[in-house]
UniProtKB/TrEMBL annotation:
It comes from Oncorhynchus kisutch. It comes from the Eukaryota. This is Transporter. GO terms for cellular component: neuron projection; plasma membrane; presynapse. Disulfide bonds join 168-177.
Amino acid sequence: VCAVVSSPKALPWTQGAKTPRDFVYLKSSKWSRFTCISFTPTCTNSRDKWSKKMDFLLSVIGFAVDLGNVWRFPYICYQNGGGAFLIPYIVMAIFGGVPLFYMELALGQFHRTGAISIWKHICPIFKGIGYAICVIALYVSFYYNTIIAWALFYFYSSFASVLPWTNCDNAWNTENCTNYFLKDNVTWNNYSRSPAEEFYTRNVLEIHKSDGLRNVGGVRWQLMLCLFLIFTIVYFSLWKGVKTSGKVWVDAAAQIFFSLGPGFGVLLALSSYNPFTNNCYRDAIVTSLVNCLTSFMSGFVIFTVLGYMAEKRNVNVEDVARDKGPSLLFITYPEAIANMTGSTFFAIIFFVMMITLGLDSTFGGLEAIITAVMDEYPGYLANRRELFVLGLVVVCFLGSLSTLTNGGAYVVKLLEEFGVGSSIIAVGFLEAIAVSWFYGITRFSNDIKSMLGYSPGLFWKVCWVAISPAFLAYIIVSSLLKPPPLQLFDYKYPDWSITVGYVIGASSFMWIPIYMVYKLVWTPGSLKQYNKHKLSARGDFNVKRKHFI
């Protein structure tokens, strides 16, 4: 006998049912369509859930829309032909980024566990992917929060009647400082520096006191205090959990992948706290659209600013920003804001926006680690979340100290290029292969059907099986064949630093083959038995859904 319910909220996984039962979900009052569900509960059904649907959606959007949307997309777009770049960008988003984004949301919501333990449900031999994701997330936290600390330093400095990066009369300025906004017919040469650039390089970073990676100098106590405040906010936000040419196509593919963020484990973690019947398909589409529109809006703004500044200096647009990285946030935008009416007010608002954008992504990245580790070791950590989060925050703070030195910007760029870079793309590639080839596209589609009531269309299946893995493999091969030259301002990274970078990248990815070898060596029995137990998933619950018209 089936119990009749009129809403998915009345189904047992939202009510904490403890015995197997059959339920009928009535789709209309005229019985024109209903769903019969056979449900067998397990311990995973008592998992915490988001208090409201909007909490989850805003958290995912907050992770996807980050500081990279503000500076990286506009530069990549300009570098590859401006408006023409939008064609490969949109194509890569449709056939690569969005399908992978949808896949991770569905995986996390169905299996309801973190990036490590989820592999016992998908393909146990690939469990090393979960450990690799955690290491990569740690590397990101080592440098990404430093960028937020820079923004906090600017936020504090903005509380002045005259913004300190508007003139050349400060103690940190040099004879090369040229305020071309206050003078007509200014001659701009290779040695000229704007007040905003000298404020960033000589006052915030004090990079002139460093000789490069060989001598990064001492720790900037002002930045360390800013970082301490950032991690304090992070801790009290997380401690209680969720309830509180060919190159053009390579750049387009890499940008959409890094922007949406599949492969970082964040989507798995956040979606694992969703109700079982949540419409993850709609969430994927909405988040992807918001992310792309934000990038487009940022592009319009920064193109306008760069064009105006280039006109004032009488130089080409590409010569305006000497470093095409985060310094666009701390030189180009502040310089433009300084010349607006009410510049102090707009500077404060702008850096508040930067801090909140950065914190949203930090919350997601660290939550991925917390969820993954706590789900893998519940016996040790189930009742010790506060202590574990505190320990994680302390590790991240200590790991960030090298980025707070006079030469910390050099370390930030090295970690950004190699600590994440090809490693996270390779992880995403293996994840797509494991799900679509080993777990099986038919089985994965049935999982989605059990949640949403309908199977994903042919387009999504083809993308998951072939197009998305090919898209990731293309990025990996292209980046390895033509590694980008490393340079920050006038400093060219030495050859040995590239080797160090590859070691950093390998230190995360190596967990995947290490775990495979470990399981192969230590698993008893024949190879046939091994294949049966380690290449096949085992489920912890059974949900069968039948539709009647």
